[in-house]
Amino acid sequence: MMKPKLGLLVRHLSDFWWKKSQNQISTSVKKFAGNALPDLTAVRYKVKRGPYDEITGTHVKFFEQLLGQSRVITDPTECDGYNVDWVKTVRGKSRLVLKPKTTEEVSAVLKYCNDNRLAVCPQSGNTGLVGGSVPVFDEIVLSMKMLNKIISTDQLTGALVCESGCVLETLDNHLEQYGFMMPLDLGAKGSCLIGGNLSTNAGGQRLLRYGNLHGSVLGLEAVTADGRIIDCINTLKKDNTGYHLKNLFIGSEGTLGIITKVSISCPTRPKVQNVAFLGLKNFDNVLNTFVLAKKELAEILSACEMMDFNSMGISTDLLKLQRPLTTEHKFYMLIETSGSNSSHDEEKLTTFIEKAMSQKFIDDGTLSSDPTKMKHMWSVRERLGEGCLLDGYCFKYDVSLPLPCFYKLIETLHDRLDLSRVVRISGFGHLGDENLHVVVATPEYDSEIEAQLEPFLFEYVSQQHGSVSAEHGIGFKKTKYLSYSKDASAIELMKQLKKTMDPNGILNPYKVLPLY
Ligand code: FAD
Prior knowledge:
By secondary structure, the protein is of the alpha+beta class. It is 34% helix and 18% strand. The protein has 20 helices and 16 strands. The strands form 3 sheets. A 7-stranded antiparallel β-sheet has the order 13-10-12-11-15-16-14, with helices on both faces. It has a 5-stranded antiparallel β-sheet with strand order 5-6-9-7-8. Bound molecules: flavin-adenine dinucleotide.
C-alpha cells in the first residue's frame, strides 16, 4: 500500500463514492444506447458500386444447403443490425448474412463467392471505427462470431491457439487460470473478436509494454478469396522460414483473406498492478511526466494514457462517472505499472511520484492497487470512445504524431473550426505510443465541419511525418487519405498484392484501397 508521505495522493481515494461508480462501470461496449441511423454510405459519400453480381434466390439456396437455414440470415430487420457501424457513421444495405462455424465452411463460401463474383464483407465484433466492418452496398456479411473455439493453451510458454471468433475478453478470462493474459487490451474488449483485432492490427492500452500484434502473433490460418486455406499456425516464437505471410493478413482489414485461426504468445499475468491518476496544468508537464515515468518506472511501466479537460467532461458530465480527482486540471494522465513484487513496485512508484511532485510536473493525483479502484480509474479513460457519442455525431480521428507537436493539433482545431457548430473538441489517447484520438462532436452530421476538418487534419499529420491512422486502420472512411501516410510506390505494391491475392476484388471492396 501507499506510504504515508504520499498523503496528498491517498487522500483522494477516500473521496470516491465507490459503490455508486462501481454500478456505472462497464467493460462491454454493448451497453451503449446509440443515436440516429446514418445516411446510406453510398449516398453520403457518392460511391459507385463495383462490378459484382446481385444476390439471387439460387445463391441463397446454395448457402442454405451449405450452412443450414438458421445460419443464413435474409430477414431485412435482422440484417440491418449488421449494416451499421458501432459509431453510427456508415450504413450499407446487405440483405444476406452468413454465419460459418468452421474454416472449411468459410472456404466453401469464399470459393462460391469468387466463382460467382459476389462481394463479401467480413465482420467480427463490429466495433471498428473506420467503417471497415459493414458493407457499403449489398456485400454479403460474413459474420465470424460462430468460429469461437479455444483450441489449446500451452501452460509452459503461454501460446494460445483459438478460432478467430473468440471475444477478446473471454480469451483473457480463460488465460487467467493459467497465470497468463492477452497481450492486448482495449475499451471494446467485451465485444471485439480476436480475428477483428488481428485484421485491424489493434493497439490499445498495453501496446507500450507488450508491443503490437506483428510481434505477439505467432501464426494464423487464413482463407484467401478463391477459398484456399493458408495454414500458418505456429506455436513457437522463432520461425524464419521464408516470407512472414502472417503479417500480410495482420492489419489488412479483410481485404486479402479471412482469418480463421490465431496463435498468439501470451505474457505472464502480473502479480501486482498499480494505477496512478494525475492532474497536470499544461502539456509540457505531461511530456515531462512521461519521460520521468519511463526513467523511474522502467520495466514495470505498462500503460501511459492522457486525456484533456474536455475529455474528462465526457466521463463526468455525459457518463456520470465519479471524478478520480476532486480538483480540475487542464490535463490528466493515467499511469499503470505491472510487476511481480509489490514492495519493489511501490518503492519505484513512490520515487517517481515524489520526483514528479517536487519538480512540479504534477499538481494532484491519486494512486491505488485496489482492483475496484483501478477499474474505476481505467473506466474514466476507457469509456471515452463510448461516452463521446452522447454529444451527438462524432468526427473521430486516430493519429500518430511526434510528441512535441502531439497536442498542438487540438489547439489548432480550436482556432480553425466554427465553434458555434461544435459541441466539444477533445483529445485523449495512448500517449506512450504517440497515439492521439481527436474527437469533434457536433449535434448531428455536419458536412461543413467535415470540410473544415478534412483534408486539413490529414495534411497537418502528414507535414509532421505522423500517421493518419495510428491503430484503427483505413477501412472505408480513410481510403482517400492513405496517400498522406504511404508513398505512391508503397500503394502501388499494395495494389499488386491485392490483385494477386484477390483478382476479382470480392474481399471487402471499397476498403483500404480505393479500387473503384
Ligand atoms: P470488426 O469491427 O468487426 O472488423 C474490423 C475490420 O476487420 C473490418 O475491416 C473487417 O472487415 C475486418 N475483419 C473482421 N474480422 C475479420 C477476419 N476474421 N478476417 C479478416 N478480416 C476481418 N482499437 C484499437 O486499436 N485500440 C483501442 O484502444 C481501441 N479502443 C476502442 C474502444 C471502443 C469503445 C471501441 C468501440 C473501439 C475501439 N477500438 C480500438 C477499435 C476496434 O475495437 C478495433 O479496431 C478492433 O480490433 C475491431 O475488432 P472487431 O472484432 O470489432 O472487428
